[in-house]
Specification:
Helices cover 67% and strands 2% of the residues. It has 261 residues and is an all-alpha fold. The chain has three domains: 69 residues, Multidrug-efflux Transporter Regulator, Chain: A, Domain 2, CATH 1.10.1660; 33 residues; 151 residues, no CATH class. Helix 1 packs across helix 3, helix 6 runs antiparallel to helix 7 and helix 7 runs antiparallel to helix 11.
């Protein structure tokens, strides 16, 4: 007769596992001998090995008892069912692996390829990482809410980078990340920004063709959220927006001309 330690050794499991199987009702507990120890026979070893084999094969402990008592046909059907479940779990784990791979890929985790390409171009231009991260976070929010408009937005952003004046403004904003809120250069930066805004508005009026205005589809709540990203990313942001208002424009994500009078 075997002690619990010897039983565990024969079946290549731990004593803790044996006790766990006792607690689950999978392995009957023998009576204690006169010394107060439990003693196990050969049948206990066989049953424990069967339990261990099923558990190692991925069979949930809740079904081990059923399989131990099943006849050949029932056993085959149960194994087929467990196999289907395991294959489903493998597919799910594969999806998890793909998601992890996306995490390793960085920007592409939550952004479409054209947005990833846009961020890559910002990096190639040598813009500060903090500015790029702010852009990334903003476009993640937009892509989640307005995925169908992302191609338009990204085409527009790429076109802006092709314009020397707009590109210089990007560089100025990148440099302005390090400015203090009261930096005297902020006013000049605001003047250049207003000049660009008004030039774009004038060009848009001249080229109006009746196509939908993609800016109009952006909910105010999303615009406010995007503005908060900007406000948190630059110490000069609040002052810059105040200066914009003084020059007749309000907002940041959805710039609007302030009605006169």
């Amino acid at each position: 007769m075997l002690t619990i330690s010897q039983l565990a050794s024969y079946a290549d499991v731990t004593v803790r596992a044996v006790r766990h199987y006792h607690a689950k009702g999978l392995l009957p507990e023998p009576e204690r001998d006169r010394s107060g120890y439990r003693r196990y026979g050969a049948q206990a070893v066989v049953e424990l090995i069967r339990i261990r084999t099923l558990a190692e094969a991925g069979v949930p402990l809740a079904r081990v008892r059923e399989l131990l008592a099943a006849d050949e046909a029932q056993f085959a059907a149960a194994v087929a069912d467990i196999d289907r479940r395991l294959r489903a779990e493998i597919r799910e784990r594969q999806r998890h692996r793909e998601r992890i791979a996306q995490l390793a890929a960085g920007d592409s985790l939550a952004l479409p390829p054209d947005a990833v390409a846009y961020l890559g171009r910002l990096r190639e231009l040598g813009l500060p990482q903090l500015m790029i991260e702010g852009e990334r976070d903003s476009w993640i929010l937009v892509a989640a809410q307005l995925p169908e408009h992302m191609p338009f937005y990204m085409t527009a952003k790429q076109q802006q980078l092709d314009d020397p004046a707009t590109l210089q403004l990007y560089r100025d904003l990148g440099e302005a990340i390090a400015w203090e809120a009261d930096d005297p250069r902020v006013a000049a930066l605001c003047d250049r920004l207003v000049a660009l805004i008004e030039a774009e508005v004038k060009e848009g009026e001249n080229q109006a063709d009746g196509s939908p205005d993609h800016a109009d589809v952006m909910p105010d709540e999303l615009a406010e959220l995007l503005d908060s990203v900007f406000l948190d990313s630059l110490p000069i942001a609040r002052r810059l927006m105040r200066l914009l208002e003084e020059r007749g424009w309000r907002g940041w994500t959805k710039l609007e001309r302030i009605p006169s009078g």
